[in-house]
Amino acid sequence: MSTVLKYWILRLLGHGLVLIPVIFETVTSLPYDSADGVLDKLKLTCSAAVIIAVVSFCLIKNLLKERIRTPAPWALACVSFLITAASRVVADKLFYITLAWALGSLLALIPYKAADRIKKGAERDG
């Protein structure tokens, strides 16, 4: 297996270790059974999507830094509003969601470190 392939597999494994616990905890902790109507379930689903999108954004922010130099004020306002709205719906569950995110991120350090070693070894050899 080439070092490039090993590097990308380890990076994807690291990203998975960050995202999968957050997605699982978000979906399982939302009170879908107590949601009465379609609108309540839609609010919960949208809140979960925003929370997962924020975590995903944290992963890809370095890639976006090169594309977006300074975000527009309207973009910051819209993102802040969406985060606040999502947090309001699932405020008591955010503790467990962020705990899962922290634990997953700590586990992801292992494949990230291995991927960095592979990349540094390939740069040194090549």
Please describe the structure with a list of short key phrases separated by commas or semicolons:
single chain; 126 residues; mainly alpha; 4 helices; globular
Number of helices: 4
Instruction: Output the radius of gyration.
Output: 18 Å
Total E-strand runs = 0
Q: What is the first-to-last residue Cα distance?
A: 16 Å
Please tell me what the overall shape is. globular
> Which spans have pLDDT < 50 for at least 5 consecutive residues?
none
Overview of this protein structure:
There is one protein chain. With 126 residues, this protein is an all-alpha fold. The chain has helices spanning 3-29, 38-67, 73-89, 94-125. Helix 1 packs antiparallel against helix 2 (38-67), helix 1 packs antiparallel against helix 4 (94-125) and helix 2 (38-67) runs antiparallel to helix 3.
What is the topological layout?
Elements: H1 3-29, H2 38-67, H3 73-89, H4 94-125
Brief write-up:
It contains 4 helices and no strands. It is mainly α.
